[in-house]
UniProtKB/TrEMBL annotation:
GO cellular component: cytosol
Record-given protein name: 3-isopropylmalate dehydrogenase
Protein task: Catalyzes the oxidation of 3-carboxy-2-hydroxy-4-methylpentanoate (3-isopropylmalate) to 3-carboxy-4-methyl-2-oxopentanoate. The product decarboxylates to 4-methyl-2 oxopentanoate.
Associated pathway: Amino-acid biosynthesis; L-leucine biosynthesis; L-leucine from 3-methyl-2-oxobutanoate: step 3/4
Species, as recorded: Cellulophaga algicola (strain DSM 14237 / IC166 / ACAM 630)
Top enzyme category: oxidoreductase
Amino acid sequence: MNINIALLPGDGIGPEVIAQAVKCLKAVEETFGHQFTFTTELIGGAAILETKKALPENTIKLCLDSDAVLFGAIGLPEYDNNPDAKIRPENGLFELRKALGVFTNIRPVAVFPTLLKKSPLKEAVLKGTDFVIYRELTGGIYGGAHTLSGDGTTATDIASYTESQISRITHLAFKAAKKRSKKITLIDKSNVLETSRLWRRVVKRISASYPEVELECIYLHNAIMQMILNPSRFDVILAPNLFGDIISDQASVIGGSIGLLPSASIGDGIAMFEPIHGSYPQAAGKDIANPIAAILSAAMLLQHFGLEEESRAVVSAVNKSLKKKIVTPDISSKSKHGTNDVGDFIANNIVDTDDSLTMNYENIGLGKSTII
Ligand code: IPM
Ligand code: MN
């Protein structure tokens, strides 16, 4: 298969982790006889420095001319610490999501058996955890107007949702649940927010077309407690934009490190794949960032194009690196391995999957999540 991949490494550790994902994709290309082309462009803080724009036209054009986008991370401390900044690196990501028309961000959360002890949760609590978050990506408080009064003393952020924004992601989430454990949890604040009440009405109505899937609707504050007390109770979590962003960060650490979780942003056209972690500027250039989330994002990209065996080979090589403790310091503080080493090991083991039969695909997640 030929796939043209736009690479947007972005800021901070983005370039380092994307370089490892590309190594792995090249190994897949060789092993399975595919043809991938990679073209790199600027986004975020790196783009602002060079072009004064967070999403330059060249970047939009490249993405729209590609089959898929592999994105690293965005954000620089000089902007985080400056509330008066006129252009922010994050705008690049918002504009890109808009340009691609991606409306669903899929974040699978699975626990690697070898990392059970690494989690802040007890092993018994964590066991069997395997869920996927469907985060709405266009609306809510992210999508509305953000204003500051002339005297700088009053700010507003408008949250709005339309039925059609809710229903298109809801159908995707129900279809995914049908192929998994047939349970959906809608997270909202319908005791407070009108947008949440609209979500409940629309999701309940749609649920009637999927009688085999059980729907539960719970408040955000309850959901975040449940995720710590009993994470294995979740299967598909459906959430509006902001709630989905927050809960997926909490979800990311229960597996042991935020550096492990990938995501896919999909819509009707070109899809984008990205680790869920941020730009972690303190680690940039130090060869300590965990490349696994970026590498698993590449595995999701392969799965998106129906390359199941290829995707499994990547996941299996990742599992092998964890098992053999070829990991970055966030996983094992004593580890002497860096970002590059881990990337090399995983890429080399895509070619040599000798003990892949001993891998537990069931528990490593991606194979169970559904990207349509
Ligand atoms: C994410 C990130 C972004 C978001 C930031 C970088 C704007 O946290 O993709 O989860 O909030 O959507
Ligand atoms: Mn986030």
